[in-house]
Amino acid sequence: MSETQNIEYKSLWHDEYLKWICGFANAQGGKLYIGKDDNGKVVGVKNFKKLMEDLPNKITTVLGIVCDVNLHETSEGKFIEIAVESQPTPVNYKGEYHYRSGNTKQELKGVALDKFLLQKYGKKWDSVPVPSVTVSELKLKTIDFFKEKGIEAKRLDESCLKDTPEKLLDNLKLTNNGYLKRAALLLFHPDPERFVTGAFIKIGFFRSESDLQFQDDIYGNLFEQVEKTMELLLTKYTRALVSYKGLSRIETCEYPKEALREALLNAVAHKDYAGCIPIQIRVYPDRIKIWNEGKLPENWTVNNLFNEHSSRPYNPDIANALFRSGYIEAWGRGIDKMGEMCTAAGLPVPQITNEGSDFWITFRKDIYNREELSNRGLSERQIDALLFFKVKGEMTTSEYAERYKVTDRTARNDLNELAENKILTKKGETNLAKYVYI
Question: How do residues 383-409 score in pLDDT, each as one tens digit?
Fold first, then answer.
C-alpha cells in the first residue's frame, strides 16, 4: 500500500518525524510506520526496544499529546505503528504548526495559520475583534438604512429605531468584550478597505476574455457595495428589453434582477475576506460571471447546493446581519431561488463551479433569439433551425436535412458549425448524433 493522506512510511526514526505526527494530529489523524519503505514494504527496525520506550515520552513531551505506539512482527522483520488521533485543539512542534494535506506535510504560516487556529478554536474570521475602531467611526446613515430594511422585512421590531448604535450592534452580536468585530466594520464602516484589503467589488464589461471595454470599482461598506453594484449592473452593464402590451411599454431586464442580487449577496456573505482579493464580476455580451474567493463546507460538492441543504455561511456574523436586514434567507435556498427565477424568465439555470478557492456563478442569456443569432454571423437557415427546434431542445441531421431540403452532408456541416461555435452541443457520432441546446 502506498502513502496516502492518513499513512506515512519511514524506514528509520528521526526526531524530526515528530513534525509528521503533529501534521496528522492537526488534520484528520493518521498512522506513521517506522521500519517500512516508501511502498509500505517491511524493511525492519533494529532499535525497536529503545524506540518503544522513547517514542511515547517524546510525543507527549514535545507535542503534548498521547499516541498509541504498537510493535508488529512479521517474517520480513519488525516495524512500529504510531496511531495519531485528530486533536480538537491546535498541536505545535516547537512553536511550528504542521498540517497533513493529501500525502504531504506543510507548515502553516500567515493567513493559512490564522484560518487554522480560528477553526480549531471554533471561531470564524468575521468574528475576530478589532481593538482600534470605535462605534462613533461607523456610518450612522447605513445603520439607519439597516434598521429600515429590517423592519420592512419584519425581521426587526420597530422598537429598534430607538436603539443606540451600541445597543443594535450588541443585539446583532457584532461586538466582543467591548470591541467591534470584523463583521461590524465590513457592514457599517464607511471605508472597510482601510482594515480589510480587497474589501470591494470590481466589475468590468468584456467583448471577449481578453477585450475589456470598461470597468468600475465599488467601495464602501457591504450594504453600499451591494446597492451600487446592482445599480451599475442594471443601468450600465446590461440593458432593458422593451416590449409592448397594448399601449403599455414594458421593460424587462436581460437577467432576473433578484437572481443577480441573490448571487451578489451570496458572494458577499461567503467570500473569504482573508484572501484580500475583491469580488469580481465579468459581464459579457451573452453572460455574467460572478467570482469570489471561498470554499464550500468540508465534504460538500457543488451538487449539495442543488439539493436540500442546511445554511452554513462562511461568515456567520455577516450572514446574520444580512438576514436581519431582509437581504438574504436563512435556510440555504439562495441557489434554488436563482434557478427558479432564471427558469421562469426562460433562461438557463445558473452554472456554479468551485475549484480550489475559486467560486463562480455564471448567468447565461437566452441566446436563441433572431437579433443575437444574427450578430453571430449565422445563415438564415441556421437561425431558422435554431428558433424552430428551440422548444424541442435538440435536433438531428436528418431532421435538419428534411426541413430545409438539403443533403445530409450540408446539414451535418451546418450543425457542426453551430457546435464549434458553442451554440449547440453535439452528443454522439455519425448520423445518429443529436445536437442539443446549451
Answer: 999 999 988 889 999 999 999 999 999
Report if residue 263 sits inside a domain.
Answer: yes
- Rounded Cα distance, 29 and 350, in Å: 38
DSSP 4: B
205 contacts 214 by C-beta, under 8 angstroms: yes
The three-state secondary structure class of 78 is: strand
For residues 316 and 338, state if they share a domain: yes
**C-alpha distances in Å from residue 232, one per residue of 120, 212, 228, 239:** 40, 16, 6, 11
Query: Any idea what the CATH number is for the domain that residue 109 is in?
Result: 3.30.950.30
Contact criterion met (CB below 8 Å) for 264 and 290 = yes
Cβ pair 176, 126 in contact under 8 A? no
**What phi, psi does 20 have (nearest 5°)?**
-65, -40
| Structure confidence at residue 1 (pLDDT) | 56
Angle at 309 between CA 307 and CA 310, to 5 degrees: 170
Residues 245 and 383 in one domain: no
pLDDT tens by residue, 153-163: 999 999 999 99
Band (pLDDT 50/70/90 cuts) for residue 242 is: low
**196 lies in the same domain as 220:** yes
User: What predicted TM-score, i.e. pTM, was given to this entire model?
Assistant: 0.74
Show the cell assigned to 321.
446581519
Taking Cα atoms as reference points, which of 80, 60, 84 lies closest to residue 10?
80
